[in-house]
Design a protein that fits this description.
With 358 residues, the chain is an alpha/beta fold. It is built from 13 helices and 14 strands.
C-alpha cells in the first residue's frame, strides 16, 4: 500500500546517546514515538549524512512497528562530498525517496504525542495549511531550562502570545519541524542547495518561496515536538552513568569543515529577483550582476550587516571582508547545484527498496 505520508528524518548525528537517556540511541527515541502514533499510514525515510559509517542494529525493534523504514545515503551533493554541512541536500534527498502525498520533516532526538501525525495531516486536509510545529527543549523527562530557570522553547511562542491566538498563518519564518505536500516540494524544486556549505537561512528561504507560491503555513500552539538537548557526551567515563553501549564505541562524531560563508547576502539577492525567477530552486546559478554584489558583500555598511543590524563576524582585523574569500567559496560560481528534483526522484524511487531496513 502506498503511504499517505512520508516522514523524513534528516540526520548527521553519530551514535552518541542523549544526555538524560544515556543508553537510548537517538534513532530509537524518535522511532518509538512514531510507533505510538494513532495514524499509521506513513513511511519513515532516514536521510543520513553519515550513511556509510552508520552502525545501527535495526533488529532492536522486536515488534511490528506498523510502518516501513528506509535508510538512504546522500549521493548528489558536492558540498557533502567535500565535508561541509549539507542541510538542503539532506532534506532534498529525503524528498527524492518520498512516496507519500504529504511530507513531515523531523530532526533526530525528538519525540511527540501519539496524535501528532494525525493532527498535522488533518490541518492540511481540512484547513489547507502546512503545519510548522513549535518545539520545546527537554533534558531527559524534564524541561530544559536557561540560566534564569525558564523552560527553553521556540521563540515563536511569543508571536502567538502577542497576537493572542492559538493559530497563526504565514506571519512568521519557517523553521525546522516543517511539513508540506509533495506536490509543493516538487513544484518549487525543493530546498535551495546554494545555501549548503553553511548553516543559515535554508529553511526560512524555503518557507518564503512556499508563501510566494500561494501555500499557507501555520503555527498551532497545540502542535509541537519535544526535542532532547543533544550535546556530545563527555569522554570522561565519570560523567557517564552506566556502561557505554557497543554502538557508542563504533561511531565517530561528525566533524564538518568550517562554514563556507554567511548566507545572508545569498538570501537577499535571491529575494531581489522577480518572483518567477526565484520561486523554483536549483534551476540556475548566480547571474553575473549578482556575483558582483556578493564579492565584496553588498550587505555591509562599514562593519555592520544591513540584514541583522549587528557587526559582521566575517571581518578581518584590518576591516576587510572575509565574505566569499574561502578557498571553496567559488563553488557557488563554478558549480552551483543545478538539477531537476522531480527527475532525480524518479531515479531514486527505482532503487528505493534497496534501502529498506524494516
Amino acid at each position: 500500500m502506498t503511504p499517505q505520508i512520508s516522514i523524513i528524518l534528516n540526520t548527521a548525528r553519530s551514535g552518541l546517546s542523549m544526555p538524560g537517556f544515556f543508553n537510548i540511541h537517538h534513532f530509537k527515541f524518535t522511532i518509538d514515538a512514531l510507533a505510538r502514533q494513532t495514524f499509521k499510514n506513513f513511511e519513515l525515510i532516514i536521510s543520513d549524512y553519515i550513511h556509510d559509517k552508520r552502525h545501527f542494529d535495526w533488529s532492536c525493534f522486536n515488534r511490528d512497528l506498523g510502518f516501513p523504514i528506509y535508510h538512504v545515503p546522500i549521493t548528489h551533493s558536492i558540498y557533502k562530498d567535500k565535508g561541509y554541512c549539507a542541510i538542503c541536500a539532506t532534506k532534498n534527498n529525503g524528498i527524492m525517496y518520498a512516496s507519500g502525498d504529504y511530507i513531515i520533516s523531523l530532526d533526530d532526538c525528538c519525540t511527540f504525542e501519539s496524535h501528532y501525525v494525525q493532527k498535522v495531516l488533518e490541518a492540511w486536509m481540512q484547513h489547507g495549511y502546512f503545519v510548522n510545529a513549535l518545539h520545546v527543549k527537554e533534558f531527559g523527562s524534564t524541561n530544559y531550562r536557561d540560566s534564569n530557570g525558564n523552560p527553553i522553547r521556540d521563540c515563536r511562542y511569543q508571536i502567538l502570545d502577542a497576537h493572542k491566538t492559538d493559530i497563526l498563518i504565514n506571519n512568521f519564518n519557517l523553521y525546522g519541524y516543517s511539513s508540506f505536500s509533495l506536490e509543493a516540494a516538487l513544484k518549487l524544486g525543493g530546498f535551495n542547495e546554494m545555501f549548503d556549505g553553511s548553516r543559515q537561512l535554508e529553511d526560512i528561504e524555503f518557507g518564503e518561496r512556499l508563501k510566494l507560491a500561494g501555500y499557507r503555513i501555520a503555527l498551532n500552539r497545540n502542535i509541537f515536538v519535544c526535542e532532547q538537548e543533544h550535546t556530545k557526551i563527555a569522554s570522561d567515563p565519570g560523567n557517564y552513568h552506566g556502561q557505554y553501549p557497543e554502538w557508542w564505541m563504533k561511531e565517530d562524531d561528525v566533524k564538518f569543515e568550517p562554514n563556507l560563508r554567511c548566507n545572508g547576502p545569498i538570501f537577499y539577492i535571491l529575494r531581489e529577483r522577480k518572483p518567477q525567477d526565484w520561486i523554483v530552486a536549483n534551476k540556475h546559478g548566480f547571474y553575473d550582476h549578482e556575483k558582483k554584489k556578493i564579492d565584496p558583500c553588498f550587505m555591509l555598511e562599514g562593519r555592520i550587516c544591513k540584514s541583522s543590524g549587528v557587526e559582521c563576524n566575517w571581518i578581518n582585523q584590518d576591516g576587510s571582508s572575509l565574505q566569499m574569500k574561502h578557498p571553496d567559496a567559488n563553488l557557488l560560481f563554478t558549480s552551483s547545484p543545478i538539477f531537476d528534483l522531480s527527475k532525480m526522484r524518479d531515479e531514486k524511487l527505482q532503487i528505493k527498496e534497496t534501502y529498506r531496513v524494516r
